[in-house]
# Entry
Amino acid sequence: METLSGSLGSKPISMKQPLLGFTLILFIAFFGVLLSSTSNTLSLFLVTGVALGYILTRSIFGFAGGVKRIYVTGDSSLSKALLIMFAITIVATAGIHWGAAADGAEPAFRAAASADIIPGSGSVKAINLALILGGFIFGTGMIMAGGCASGTLTDLGEGAVRAVIVLFFFVLGSAPGAFARYELLETSIGSAGTTVYLPDLFGYAGSVLASLLLLIGFYTIAAKYEAFRRREGHFIDGAPLQNELPAAKGAEFKLFSLKTYHQFFVKQWSYVTGGVLLAVMFIFIINTTGSSWGVTTPFQTWSVAMMNAVGLDLTSPAFSGDMETIENGLLNHNGTLRNIGIILGSALALLLAAKFKLNYQFKLRDVVIYSLGGLLMGFGARLASGCNIGGLFAAISNHSLSGWVFMIALILGGIAGLKLFEGKINIIPPNRYLKK
# Structure
């Protein structure tokens, strides 16, 4: 049996992991067919989750890294890829919203019960104290935990034991965060705020133009900051992209060969490739479900289920929807299946590349930091009613001003976390695709 080698290391690597990867594909297919007997939607959420996880891991793409990497190393490549991804989804969703509005649909926040809702507009959120505080708290927590919500799921799929700790406490902090949001919104100061749907101010074309101008501004700042760090000698070269396999002289192209396998299943994708593919998946999700990608709402449900399991009676109206979901079974919950899919997709990416390995590289002191980071992320995400997927990516892409406000709060929280914990924890995770 041919082995993987070349840029994956000097020693040939067994095909055992890739075979496990193909076995996992068969399991996912079987699981999807099983789910389809209940609902095709469940299968859809599972498969989209697998695709998201695979893309995130294959491109080493992370939303938290957009803040961490540029601050720590001066490298703006991931930050700029995120901005390119936003630009694609902003333009695409403008067309989706515009077409739906032309047929009489309304944004979710002001639609009557019987009205058609513009796909994705459920991500248009109010700008209030809960959003700002939640964004800041989440930003600090994601630095302490070593990743955001989607990053925690992909880390888990990649074999990072740290992610088990983070996810447990992320889930644990979610129900208290949801309760705090509910109680805060019941107060006069908490309920004060406004919902701004940018097409209401500028029209759809104007909203796209205004959003793109903001993205260009952030892109310019990122590029100039990297140039400044290089000029001042404070730039840290990140790990390069994986090299190509060495070409044999006179070798002809063979479809069934190591080189072909390497190109299709092993070679690391660039940040921009990852961003473009995630944008495509984001648009696909809106078109097939009518809603945007989100990660942390299921965490809230898991949190309530966890607390119910230990005998805590959560009777607050904040958890009414969660109780219904739990009674129906978590494996019948769309969001839960998508998150499971993300974990499976990440594991699949590394198995096919023969790079899966359990990572125990942390100290006992780090456990405390990871635990507190997870709690802060869970609390902050549900206080803000979204993380850097639902509160940032989905909101900005669906032309909500709340996404830009959440971005500022999250960046400030992230910088605060970096100031407090830089040098104390592994802020930038290793590139699993490169030679160890």
Q: What stands out?
A: Confidence is low (pLDDT under 50) at residues 5-11. The chain has 17 helices and two strands. The longest strand covers residues 126-128. Residues 12-106+116-236+257-421 form one domain.
